Protein 1
Amino acid sequence: MYKYDEYDHSIVAARVEEFRDQVNRRLAGQITEDQFKPLRLMNGLYLQLHAYMLRVAVPYGTLDSRQMHMLAHIARKYDRGYGHFTTRQNLQYNWIKLEDAPDILAELATVEMHAIQTSGNCIRNISSDQFAGAAADELTDPRPWAELLRQWSTFHPEFSYLPRKFKICVIAAEEDRAAMRLHDIGIQIVEKDGQLGAAIYVGGGMGRTPMIAPLIKDFVPFDDFVSYLEACLRVYNRYGRRDNMYKARIKILIHELGADKYAAEVEEEFAAVKALGIDPPRAEFDRIAAHFAPPAYDADAPDTLDRSDPDFAVWLDQNVSAHKQPGYAVVTISLKPIGGIPGDATADQIDLMADLAKAHSFDELRVTHAQNIVLPHVRKADLYALWQQLRDAGLAEANLDLISDIIACPGLDYCSLANARSIPLAQKIATRFSDIGRQRELGELKLKISGCINACGHHHAGHIGILGVDRKGVENYQLLLGGSGAEDVSLGTITGPGFSEDGIVDAIEKATNVYLAQREDGERFLDTYRRLGMAPFKEAIYG
Amino acid sequence: MGDLLRYRDDEAHEEPAVTLDAFLGQSNATAVRIESGEDARVLLPYLDRIALVEVSFPKFRDGRGYSTGRILREAGYQGELRAQGDVLVDQIPLMRRCGFDSFAPEAPVDEAVLAASLARYEFHYQAAADPAVPVWKRRHG
């Protein structure tokens, strides 16, 4: 994975000092909260219901054991002994004191981490495929492209006060594990005439007006990559709406302008920008890519497995994925224990995952947008011992992509924007469907909960989505069916009137019963819904 | 009203800036003011006779002027480029990178804080409209 050189270290160290100075000026009353807000936001510090929340960047979701141990250390020293892995592949702490924040950033900098641009109206942490470098189906490792963009976007002088936040995702496989087309810019690395380049999708997003990003350019060669993105952002910075924060995302600009007109504007801007010489040379790409070279696999690693322990076999089938290297596998550690808080991990669990990565996964971990942790390169021969250790720590829930593998935003328990609680509902649903046999019978079923229309819990992209709203002072939950954040991307449709907390759990059960009764061979819940349409589900839920 | 901060060696331009419409309608103006929603590119045919472009920042959150500055500099504009309005001390280093070389902030700026923040970053990752050498160029010559 990427290692800082002197320049990266210098920039992050300067940022720590800058933020320390900004906090000191705030604490001394030299700047107002209104003026401080965009400064702290650009460093991932939010004021929430009860305390400050600090969001730490995990660029493209990749980190090593040393960094993971630091996250555990900070959870113990400055927070309440746990952290929350987010849908942006980051980690956030919920109980931070403002005056501690500069020291936390200084500690993070010692392990090449930071909180730069994890919030604010700027280019956010770049997200990517959590199986990058390991996936059997990838064209190339997307992370060198993502790291190139991390550097380009860090403290970008022109794009630090955009109309609204800006999220970029880079993938390089046909299977989309990162919800690429639901980003402001989604990039798929593709090959054309033997050369790698980028297919650029612009204007996707969730929030109150969900949109799937249209293709703006089918191939941008490496030599034009940064220039082209600079042009995409400049058009947005100049013409994106600033009169209404709910209409300020680039998806609204694309929607109002039309994808063709936007693409034409970008081409015109690109012609001007390309002449500036702002594209890094191929040598820089090669320097970065060398950090992502495959680890030293054991070519003789046995490719067979002993499946005689039935509990282990269930976990293998559910949470272990194919690796490109024979004898190795990709392990997803579920942070969704039945009845737990989706994405939360204790400091002890974080330390254990770090130790396991060091021992069994070439010192590498990944955070997924579904709020789980991946050990990307595990010898098949090590899987049983690994599983036993995970089981003993409460980390062996075999529910990857099943109904209890729920994405949930922090909701009204933490968030100042939320209308309804998400976490207790996730706990109730998982408890209702806790039987693993029943979950496996239901198969792949992505359930996502947001506690308000900002859609941090990705409810539009859930096979089953839930949106919490406030209905005359009472929490109410709307049900959506048919969304997907994968390569078969689609937006869910609301079934009808909303439900109480208990009512929505019953409604979900009724919807799954329709699926079980009417599915055809090999169909997932989503496939059956797409074939049958809403009517039979609606009848079962409201009839 | 804060003091005018200048990072140029020449004398400050005395002529008041006229609106973009007025500038386009009169041939002899040498100073022009651009509102944040206006297109700087209409000035490109006239750059060699302009001595001052004042770019309005009505709210510190409105970042359109950063693009305006770069577009003018990238087109070869050499005159004074002034950021006027809700310009905060923490934004001035970014504006300098976008080519601004004078500042007329509405509220006074603490010069010690500003000097420290202008000196803080030794390196920058990306190329912009200032002389800073991007990190990738330092790495590869």
Protein 2
Amino acid sequence: MTTTTAPTGGGKAAAATADYLDQRTGIGTAVKEFARKIFPDHWSFLLGEIALYSFVTLLISGVFLTMFFVPSMAEVHYEGPWATMNGVEMSEAYASTLRLSFEVTGGLLMRQIHHWAALIFMAAIVTHMMRVFFTGAFRKPRELNWVVGFVLMILGLAAGFTGYSLPDDVLSGNGLRITDGVVRAVPILGSYLSYFIFGGEFPGHDVIPRLFTLHILVVPGLILALIALHLFFVVLHKHTQYPGSGRTNANVVGYPLFPIYVAKAGGYFFVVFGIIALMGATMSINPVWNYGPYDPSPVSAGAQPDWYMLFLEGSLRLMPGQTEYVLFGPDGWTLSLNVLIPAMIVPGILFSLLALYPFLEAFATGDKREHHLLDRPRNRPFRTAFGVSVLVAFFILVLAGANDLIATHFQMSLNDITWVFRILFFVGPWAAFVVTKRICLGLQRKDRELVLHGHETGQIVRFASGEYIEVHKPLDAHERWLRVQHDAIRPIEIAPAEDSRGVRRQGYRLDRMRQRISQVFYEDRVEPVTPTELAASHSHGEHDALGSDQEKAPAQLLAEGAPTGGGRRLRSQDETDPDTRNT
Amino acid sequence: MKALAARRHDRRAPVVLLLLALLLTGALYAVLSPTSADAAPAAATADQVETGEKLFQANCATCHGPDATGRDDVPSLVGVGAASVDFQVGTGRMPMQMNGPQAPAKPAQFDEEQIAALAAFVAALGPGPAVPTAEQVDPALGDPANGMALFRTNCAMCHNAIGAGGALSQGKWAPNLWEVTPTHVYEAMVTGPQSMPVFNEATLTPDEKRDIIAFLDLQGEGAPGGLDLGSLGPVSEGLWAWVVGMGLLIGAAVWIGARSS
């Protein structure tokens, strides 16, 4: 590299600057450490980066918007180029949004970039979270980082919600009205909370300035701090990697940060920014001039929140309205279960499950080891099925939030759609759980089948005796490793309730509960092929010769194996040679 | 002679001839095609009523009855006026193709002359709203800003904020208004077809109706910010964010991840 060639003028200057900095800050050690940090390579590890880069895009475009937006609910009359708003009375917030869109050079582009980046930010967070969940990257030592990520998602929702409400148009005002309704549904405290938030009767004159402070200061500040913590944890724990030959719990197989990932990740920032800018330039988003200035009376058809809040809208739309009760006589207080259940209890349950899942799984598994190798989703059927069923529940709520658009675009009855979703909300997650679990177990059996019998080649051989067999090509070492490397997790076994002298054991009840949960998680399972099973299948193709005591060690260390067919060895190959794989 | 023949074979001759032929066809069409859009509705003649009655007996009486008084679930047409006929038949909603939650708009089955005859016949059954004059529905004479305010309080809850349409109960819907002619918009407000309420002169004055028409005239011609994505609000925006945004970004991530490894 450059060490063998004479340094250029620019190189000298850079070296001198670096040396100057190093002598004063000692930064060289940190740079050396970071530059040599190894990261594994996989496209799904870039999903979190989409979130990070769209957040940077949000910061940049957001700073531009604050230069022109006026967070005030003072009343003005609009005079400007947009014909349908001329002379209309509106708040300064709305008027400045119109001015920003139609009169400030590049203003509309920046607004649209900001809003698209917000949608992409949340979408990337959710996708990243799915990757982490389904591959088991949240296991020890990363449970805390999962929680940090979860809080970041909630903060992302908060940032989106506070920003969405700022332009003070009819649509976002409808959203605030729903918020007000949800707050009021809180038993006892409701009306006090509502007055506290809006500074008096809804909508008041305070809420836009308050949301503005939250949106540009508090929420992004918290997000920035937690992103720093999130990334610090990634460096501290090292990055997880997918299983494969040569990858163990104790190493990281990949490339150094410098120059590979500086180029890849740095380049990816521009890809993310570019795609968001392209969307902002070509696709209209949140055209507030269509909705008009906020006024509590009108609601237009198709009034919905941004996609990440749509599940809440759907939940409210599905809930039957009859569940509102007035307690303690006609002058008592109202218990609005029709709002409380869909807007607080249902999301509360779904989000709590998401946040606490790593701890639940650790409790059920009783596993205290560190995990740096990811799981293949099929190898953890309960977790995969659980994740899919939570996603299905969210997805049904999202669809229910769009029920009117489904009705008009697919020419169906709105009432029927609502009833179908009401039933699906309970049946769908359960069905998704069962189906996903069966698919996972099926894929695991397929893996076992492949390891034991090899690939089908389609070659039929007839022996002199008249017997036909199909030639099976055994897996090479890399393929086999991938399919047998994981641990078989079995339900935990506990000590009996009483010891040999009949004395009740302390802690038995907790153990019993834990065993029950563990059974739910791991009772149905397909275990990876053991070396004994593999050897047996290679020697004569009969499995019943195996002893009753199964070997616990998987077959990953067994490097033997030759093409087999009906128990006969037919030809050999160099199985570690990648060129001969899958031929 | 030879020179003339050579000139006749100019390479550009076919193009010029084609252009001339197209111009001639266009001019002929413009002269010969019926121009009734700008004509004020003339007073119905006895002849028209007679033609209208024939058309009615042949096409409408099956459901509405020979005397147009309707029966179970079929409205009487006495007193609905010419405006109602012009709207229902002019937008193709009537005659209905089949029973359903709502009669959909479709290509009109009758030409303008026939519709005018039908309208004249129904108007003769009893007094009702007339077809509006061209001046009453001229978007250029309305105030779009006032129209939007009125639209927001009276129409947007069913037809969407800028008239993109929306869902009603039991499979009914409020249609998109962008392609509806100003006359039909006015007639719909006056007569309240299907699930729509009637906006009489006390609710919306004729001037206010014209303001709404002026507002609608500005909609559906694209958005200042680029593609309008159907003007359906955040659901379609979210769908596009996932399909286009996340689709492209994950595609790029797969591409970057595939390099070097």
